[in-house]
Amino acid sequence: MAAGTPKLRYHCVSIVAGANGCDAALQLRGVRVLSAEAPRLPLPGCEHAGNCACTYRHYDDRRAGPRRADERGRLADPWALTERRRRGGRRATDFED
Questions:
Q1: Sheet containing 33-34, strands listed edge to edge, beginning at the edge strand earlier in sequence
Q2: CA distances from 42 to 54, 56, 85 (A)
Q3: Residue 5, pLDDT score
Q4: Cα(45)–Cα(27) distance, rounded to whole angstroms?
């Protein structure tokens, strides 16, 4: 990273299979892995190790898409707007008007 740029905590990569993608690369298609834990290319078991065309696709976060209900445009708790408390208390004085 360039000097002065903050290091992203959950920077991750996925492997994009090249034109002659091997089985090892195709099995990892769409799987995001933290960049520090990513396997080196060419992958172990690659049939085209001499001319492997696989690359990494970089992401700022390992999570894909919105996860929480409010990020998806829904209410997080459908009962949150409903008043569920009863009116009166348990004391005898609570019933006096």
A1: 33-34, 12-16, 55-59
A2: 7, 11, 62
A3: 58
A4: 12
What are the pLDDT tens digits along the chain (97 aa)?
455 555 778 889 999 988 878 888 889 888 999 988 999 989 888 888 888 889 999 988 777 777 676 666 776 666 666 666 666 677 777 766 5
**Residue 21 burial by CB count (10 A; 0-12/13-18/19+): exposed, middle or buried?**
buried
Amino acid at 21: G
pTM of the model: 0.58
SS3 track for the chain: CCCCCCCCCCCEEEEECCCCCCHHHHHCCCCCEEHHHCCCCCCCCCCCHHHCCCEEEEECCCCCCCCCCHHHCCCCCCCCCCCCCCCCCCCHHHHCC
